[in-house]
Amino acid sequence: MEDLVGILTDDEDFIELIDLVVRQRRRKVFRQRENHFQNWNDTEFIKRNQAVSPEGMLLITLRFFATGSFLQVVGDFIGIDKSTASRIIWKVSQVIARLYREFIRMPSDPEEIKEIRQSFYNIARFPKCIGAVDCTHIRISSPGGIEPEIYRNRKGFFSMNVQAISDATGKFQNVVCRWPGSSHDSTIFNNSHVRAQFENGVYRDEVLVGDSGYGIRSYLITPLTNPNTPAEQLFNESQIRTRNPIERVFGVWKRRFPIVSFGIRVKTEKVEAIAIATAVLHNIAHLLKEPLPPVAVEEEAALDFVNAANNMLVIPQLEVLQHFVTENILGKKVFLYEAFNLPILNRQKKDSAMICECSHLCEGVKNRAPEV
Q1: In a domain, 84, yes or no
Q2: E strands within 218-311?
Q3: Which of 40, 53, 102, 153 has a Cα at 20 to 30 A from 302?
């Protein structure tokens, strides 16, 4: 104690010293933490922490794709919160979208290319075609921020402009979903990987078919602007019928997954994964030969009319168009070519010479296409 003289200045210091000597701190004991991954089976582990099962995650995501409903409504389906449903759908969509390269790809094998060419040729005798390209808009919520208007398309709503290429059987070969709604179709194609492949000669003399919104190239055939001769009219009809599969694919895709048709109500940065995931699932359903969703007669007839009108094959008179609307010709499933007296040659009366002339015209269009 003599050594502590001068150090202990008051009673509080003395009491603290007694606490340190008499009441010594207990030594720390480190227990081995239980490993729940080894001590519990799958069922017990899920029940223990109330986690959503992988099957539940997949089902809630598929329900979201199939209904296009709100996250709150989808979450109520299995009794989870809106935020949990959002995280689950985002996670599962990313996993499915990673299968893109496996289920969505352009043909590369010579035999596969030959088969696709033949399938397109069987539609309207259009040669050397391996794909039909077009764009469609997917409605989204307002992205906000400093430049939301770049997502507003020409129809006045916010969207993503999605480019796709399909084969003749209704399968996606390429899907690009990263451009805002104000982007033009040709801009998307000019900046795509597929265009670079055609420019570099990967597909040699094969061609794509597109609508009049694209610029004509040696590998991208579009309709003639002002067809005058019977051969030119026949060429345009053949080109339109050959391009029709991509329109059909969009229709089947949006009927199979209504969220693509009604709109994707999530943050803009999550839209791409959801759109690509639904495209992957569409191709999987196509490979498994799943039955197609029912199609409305109005949609089928309107599709034929739009394809013809957009390519100047039909210029209906105003009174005919009014009669078309008031009499509900779509509902009666009247063939639109007859209803509007379209100036299109009767396919049953075409002779081999005319078809041969169409093929030569196709080659001429390719030859006069500007090199880029």
Answers
A1: yes
A2: 220-221
A3: 153
Q: Which residues contact 185 (CB under 8 A, 6 or more apart)?
A: 134, 135, 161, 163, 210, 211, 213, 214
Give the whole-angstrom CA distance, residue 65 versus residue 106: 25
Please name which of 353, 129, 124, 339 lies closest in space to residue 219, comparing C-alpha atoms: 129
- Regarding whether 217 and 150 lie in a shared domain, the answer is yes
CA angle 192, 176, 142 (to 5 degrees): 120
Q: Which of 100, 120, 151 is the last residue of a domain?
A: 100
CA–CA separation, 125 and 231 (whole Å):
13
> What residues have CB less than 8 Å from 260, skipping those under 6 apart?
68, 138, 253, 254, 275, 278
Q: Is residue 214 part of a domain?
A: yes
**Is 348 contained in some domain?**
no
Q: Does residue 350 form part of some domain?
A: no
Could you report the per-residue pLDDT of 117-126, keeping only the tens digit for each? 999 999 999 9
Q: Tell me: the pLDDT tens digits for 264-283?
A: 999 999 999 999 999 999 99
Radius of gyration of the chain (CA): 32
**Size (the chain), residues:** 372
* CA 80-83-85 angle, 5° bins: 55
Q: In whole angstroms, what is the distance from residue 163 CA to residue 184 CA? A: 10
Residue 111 pLDDT: 94
The CA distance from 51 to 269, in Å, is 26
Of 114, 57, 51, 358, nearest to 234 (Cα)?
358
Q: Are residues 78 and 129 in the same domain?
A: no
What is the span of the domain harbouring residue 76? 36-100
CB-based burial label for 197 (10 Å; 0-12, 13-18, 19+) = middle
Q: Measure the CA–CA gap between 84 and 77, rounded to whole angstroms.
A: 12
Terminal-to-terminal C-alpha distance of the chain: 98
Q: Model's pTM, two decimal places?
A: 0.71
Structure tokens given for 346: 């009767």
